[in-house]
Amino acid sequence: MTATYLDKILDRHREMAAADTRPIDRLIDEATAMPAVRGFRAALADSAKLGVIAEIKRRSPSKGDLNIGLDPAEWAKLYEAGGASCLSVLTDVESFGGSVADLQGARNACALPVIRKDFTVSERDVLDARLMGADCVLLIAAALDSAELAGFHALATQIGLDVLVEIHDEAELEHALAAKATLVGVNQRDLVTFEVDHQRAIRMGGVIPDQAIKVAESGVRGSADARMLEEAGYDAVLVGEILVTSADPQQAITELIG
User: Fold this and answer.
1) For the chain, which ranges sit under pLDDT 50?
2) pTM for the full model?
3) Residues 37-65 pLDDT 10s
């Protein structure tokens, strides 16, 4: 089977997780004592129009540098002014140039709920998302076995986090639903080829149960894509590249919402 960029990143994250010996019980106590979260799922569920999860991303493995010097606080304010429902902030350092400081700077500059976009491979990763101030955590079904997915989802819910479970196909959807996911994202980008497959997203939009909030991720190039995905049943789109490379991200979001 072809190794993907995800495999390489996950190997590195699992290596770091194995070296982390902080006591879980202490971290749970600290996470539980954190201030209340902003409702990430609720912000999408309550939106009468297509929700936009606007991403702060400096670089990507597929495209290289996108906007290395961006100011997370400034971009968060522009996203909020444009009508974004939520923020997504990359905290992976090596592959995406992100940081915990990026997430905290963005969240402190606005009132939007924020998802920590990273590669969650351990209980401590889930707890760290809450401790750094995130309102939601990403779990990638392709990166976790069914027991990990269910366990991390339950832990996140216990400490007050919303959970976006990312899937690619029907088999991964089954794992997500078994883990009690109520916020499901379909990644349109193939992990091996990096090609965007809109047909996959359209197909999966009709398969995900309606009680789940449906999010289309990756490869949204503009308002035409947003309308297509909205018609396919999606409640929200997660958009990064076209926003961080835009001359007017505020206007770009307004156009995505429609």
Assistant:
1) 1
2) 0.94
3) 999 999 999 988 999 999 999 998 778 88
Out of 80, 148, 217, 230, pick the active-site residue.
217
Residue of 117, 148, 214, 241 marked active site = 117
Active-site residue, 67 included: no
Residue 121 confidence (pLDDT): 95
Active site residue 80: no
* Catalytic site includes residue 117: yes
218 has catalytic annotation: yes
Residues composing the chain: 258
Phi, then psi, of 73 in degrees rounded to 5:
-65, -45
Q: Does 241 qualify as catalytic in the annotation?
A: no
φ and ψ at 242, to 5 degrees? -70, -20
Annotated catalytic, 108? Answer: no
Residue 148 appears among annotated catalytic residues: no
Q: Which domains does the chain have, with CATH numbers?
A: 5-257 (3.20.20.70)
Q: How far is CA 69 from CA 72, 173, 180, 245, in A?
A: 9, 36, 38, 11
Q: Rounded distance, CA 119 to CA 138, Å?
A: 8
Active-site option among 148, 166, 230, 241: 166
